[in-house]
Request: fold
Amino acid sequence: MNRRSLMMAVVATAGMGFLATAAAQDAAQLGPQELVTKVAQDTLKELDANRAEYQKNPAKVRQVVDRTMLPYFDTTYAAQLVLAQNWRTATAEQRKRFVDAFYQSLLQNYGSALTEFTPDRLKILPYQGKPDDKVATVRSEIRRDNGVPAKVNYSLRKTDQGWKAFDVQIEGISYVKSFRTDFAAEIQQKGLEAVIQRLESQVASGTVKNPTARS
Reply:
């Protein structure tokens, strides 16, 4: 699976998997599979009702993701895992800027993938975790255009605000590990500040073609 396919699945499935249709306090009471199942169904319903509008105006897709995905996706923890040891040496300002720029670059590149997703393509599999787990994996299958299913696993961790996702694995390929490898090479060559500035500049200009240096 190529990088665009990987990130399309990440954004589309994660974006649809964490819709805040229930009040935050209600969602905080749900288990990992219950949360993913309920909000995925609600999001897919909204997409179906407004698909033509989202396809016509991709900017509205980003607004939907901000409103629906962000409350249930731990962007800071995911960014910390992506930067690995570079997170420890980054300043508080650099951390915040990286989180914001990285998230926005993903949306700018792949947010429109939401409009291509339909309810019949997602199947959430039975949960195999334990009730007292602090980290959970929710398994699902995404049907590709050719009809062949792709295995998509969501990694979640239990927080004071309830379960939150921090990673997605498509056919065994981790979103976090994939970007960690790419950013580590670029940071080693250019430095963290240069990488952050590149992301910020590309997001501001609307010219992001890939969230990492690798094509």
